[in-house]
Specification:
The protein is of the alpha/beta class. The chain contains 13 helices and twelve strands. It folds into two domains: about 120 residues, Rossmann fold (3-Layer(aba) Sandwich); about 190 residues, NAD(P)-binding Rossmann-like Domain (Rossmann fold, 3-Layer(aba) Sandwich), CATH 3.40.50. Helix content is about 45%, strand content about 15%. The chain binds nicotinamide-adenine-dinucleotide.
Length: about 350
Amino acid sequence: MTNIAMIREFGHEQIAYFNNEKAIIALHNTNLGPAVGGCRLWNYSSEEAALFDVLRLSRGMSHKNAAAGLPLGGAKGVILADPSQKTPEMFEAFGEAVNTFMGKYYTAEDVNTDTKDADYILRTTDYVVGRADVSGDPSPFTAIGVFDGIRAVAKFMNGSDSVEGLKIAIQGLGKVGLALAEMLCEAGAELIVCNNSNREAMKYAVEKLGAKEVARDAIYSVDCDIFAPCALGAVVNEKTIPQFKCKAIAGAANNVIYDDAAGEALKARGILYAPDFIINGGGVINAGQEAFTTYDKEKVLEQVHNIYNVVYRMLEESKETGKPEGVIATEFAENRIRNGLDA
Ligand code: NAD
């Protein structure tokens, strides 16, 4: 596919390439408001791979922001460089690139960029959200949204949204996974956990939260009520689907379902799925508020708790239509992008 054909297929408003640093900013859609999406630093194998990634990620941000009920569009920036070679000048140049959108694009941290890099970007542009001194770390809000989404799944499965006594397997005890584990433990769930490298988090989960540890690849076949992926994307795929003994999948990781076929196969196995970009929207609800109003933590929490209702609605519509939950979620978001947030 040519680049132009690829851009047409994704339906973007604008793609801009920047010469001062090797960067691409993809503005997917601004129907609902200025577009928000982070700045990713990645050593792409080719320019084409970078373009594909930024197109996919920016469209994903339009879906995530619309589904979260935010008056924001979707965009993303990528800097094509080795993360070990990052410099302040690189981010200052990225800030100048952001300025060329004159307020239509707000950037933020993303993979391989952190608050320090955001401070460099802030030297040259004001269009940055998720500032350390305003909304701060998004992870606790993401974890709250995932917890609420899990309660909605429990309600749908069992008629009660209590997680007491439910067996929940968490993959990844990072910023979100560990905070989620604490909330679930407090609410009486039985935890099964794995993490590939963070021994300290594992020790804490086992000793303080009473979690059972399993080997990394054993997490998929744990006999449990809910599998909560909080580490990697694409973990629902042709290899893992036959292994699952869970009744539902609900976690923080992005792009959990490998492809459309995997979504269909999961549905055929009767395993419920809380769509990733809906259940993990707490972080962007927190940071995104900076782009359209004065930051207000209470309002943020109110909107994060609404994830419960949206997840429940996705499960209901999937049951009624027979379509996978991920398909329902994309249709829901695209309808809002076309017709407004009340749609
Ligand atoms: P993190 O980097 O803090 O934690 C991820 C953890 O997963 C790490 O401890 C890592 O060692 C572990 N891990 C990696 N591969 C693993 C494997 N194969 N098996 C077990 N553990 C493994 O990341 P985070 O901020 O907690 O985010 C977790 C996921 O949620 C990511 O996919 C992220 O994209 C997504 N997400 C995060 C946020 C947020 O606010 N932080 C928002 C939306 C989505």
